[in-house]
Amino acid sequence: MQSYSKKHERNEAYAKIPHQIRVLTVRARPGHPSQGLLNVAGTVFPCALGSGGITANKREGDGGTPLAAMRILSGYFRRDHFTGKRTRLAMQEIDASLGWCEVPDDRNYNRPVRLPYAASHEHMRRDDRLYDACLVLDWNIRPRRRGRGSAIFFHLARPGFTPTQGCVAVTARVMARLLPYLSGRTVLRVVR
Description:
Blueprint (H helix, E strand, L loop, with lengths): L4 H11 L7 E7 L2 E9 L2 E6 L5 E2 L9 E2 L2 E9 L13 E3 L4 E4 L10 E3 L6 E3 L9 E5 L15 E4 L11 E3 L1 H7 L8 E4 L2
Parallel strand pairs: 1-14, 4-5, 6-7, 12-13
Antiparallel strand pairs: 1-2, 2-3, 6-11, 6-14, 8-9, 8-10, 11-12
């Protein structure tokens, strides 16, 4: 007889994450379209989705999370805030001059830019710490189509998993737990 069966089950669930994660599957949480469930080899974590829920027809500014399989390309981190940096991904430190262009007509649309930048852009070094660990997904990167959405990231969530602008977001603890197992071959699949 094992008196620690409940604890043992929890430990087994923790051990289910493989040495290298190939697929992260995300679906909307039932009854909450802007919140999701992230499945990693049978272990499920809560996540935040875009305010527009999951959409098959992503457009710039619609708040939708793309219904797509998106490879993780690389990432950014704040050395002064985020400690879980061990990963196989190419990671770059975020400094005050890093931005991301979000203007469809700009030549650097959906690309990192150096600040100050004339066109509308997002500051990657944020006070709210959402991008303390921020992974770039290959949504609308190659080929890049105007108005199909920019800055679709896998990043840190706000308390309560409030909606993103179209990204997928998890807690810092979950991100730190997943990072060592992610690589350039990992795909984040958003499904219905």
